[in-house]
Design goal:
147 residues; mainly alpha; transmembrane; membrane; single chain; 64% helix; TAT_signal; two-stranded antiparallel sheet; 5 helices; 2 strands; DUF6069; transmembrane helix
């Protein structure tokens, strides 16, 4: 299995970027990250930040790997998929965060993770001349198909 160094660094970099935002906002600036969870509230800590950002990076890598196997421009499709996924992920902080500061910091966490994933994975995505393993597809030999 060919594992790209950029992709591994992306999976490591996404939680690192999120932790950097958290470190500036919470310990240094004194922000409190709390979310509503039913009738209760929960504090968002570094463990949940690392877990969520690591999960997002790994799922993105798996999706890119599948796209590279089946479509012509996997990076482009991953970039397109990223926009609605980011919008959906922002519904949590915008709807359930307690206070404006918590909302802003949580949105910054989400944007930081998506930025690392987009730069690391989308730019590393391979482009080929067509699907190679789908039954019934002929491999494109036209140089323009890879353009």
């Amino acid at each position: 299995m060919n594992i790209s160094r950029k992709r591994v660094l992306t999976v490591i970099g996404a939680p690192a970027a999120a932790l950097a935002v958290w470190a500036v906002a919470v310990p240094l600036a004194g922000a409190t990250l709390t979310m509503r969870a039913g009738d209760d509230t929960q504090t968002v800590g570094p463990a949940s930040i690392v877990a969520a950002s690591l999960l997002a990076a790994v799922v993105s890598w798996v999706l890119l790997t599948l796209l590279e196997r089946w479509v012509v421009r996997p990076g482009q499709i991953l970039a397109i998929v990223t926009v609605p996924v980011l919008a959906a992920s922002l519904s949590g902080p915008l709807g359930d965060a307690v206070g404006t500061t918590a909302k802003l910091v949580l949105v910054a966490l989400h944007v930081a993770v998506v930025a690392v994933i987009a730069v690391g994975l989308v730019l590393d995505a391979g482009q080929k001349c067509g699907p190679t393993r789908t039954p019934g597809w002929r491999r494109h030999r036209d140089a323009g198909a890879c353009g």
